[in-house]
Known about the structure:
Layout: E1 2-6, H1 16-25, E2 29-33, H2 37-49, E3 53-57, H3 69-81, E4 86-93, H4 101-117, E5 122-127, H5 130-140, E6 145-147, H6 154-162, E7 165-169, H7 179-187, E8 193-195, H8 217-228, H9 232-247
Parallel strand pairs: 1-2, 2-3, 3-4, 4-5, 5-6, 6-7, 7-8
Helix pairs in contact: 2-3, 8-9
Amino acid sequence: MIDTHSHVYEEEMPNYKEIIEECKNKDISMIINGVDNKSNKEIVDLANEYDNVYPAIGLNYDQIDYFDDKDLEDLEELIKSNNVVALGEIGLDYYWTKENSEKQVYFFKKQLELAKKYDLPVIVHSRKASQEVFDIIKESGVRKGSMHCYSGSVEMAKEFIKLGFKIGIDGPITYSNNVKGIELVKEIPLEYLLLETDSPYLAPEPNRGLQNSPLNLIYIAEKIAEIKGISADEVIEKATKNAKELFNL
Ligand code: NI
């Protein structure tokens, strides 16, 4: 199994090394996503240490006020000197504030340029910004990536798929009354879905509210299987194939 979006590193999870080792014993790999160059650096080091860790690096919205062009230069250096599998997580978030939207857009566009330059897929965070994220990606020419923890409409998901993107499904799919999520999983063929946890956040049932980890990926696969009326093994097999192809693992 491959968790295509997690934050299993020191700042987010003090027990990150135990988690990585336990996952390794259970044949679970993970793409760990950075949010700034401190976490990015930590993640590329972890990937050198553990063969079940793949690094995705990026400058994410929540630190945006502190970033400048030097961060983009440092990010590019990290891409050049390491076996990075994606730019991520990157994107736009207008849930908390729209006041810094200009700067968010600037860094999103710059990182899409880097993805294009180094022929890497992107892992995209989008909240309250679906149409703008879509327009910016379309214009950028980037044609491979994942819409991480996708929460938009089925119609929009299909538009992202047409652009060459896959749709990340996380723990909330297991929450009761997630009508929108269930509709999405029903409508979108398995070949376009990815399994991800966003650890340590968004733990699925039956571990909701606890620290999440890639060990919980199975509950997301089981829920997708239940919705689609197929076996969890089939979900895992196809989602693993999707992840390997997209991220060239
Ligand atoms: Ni994330």
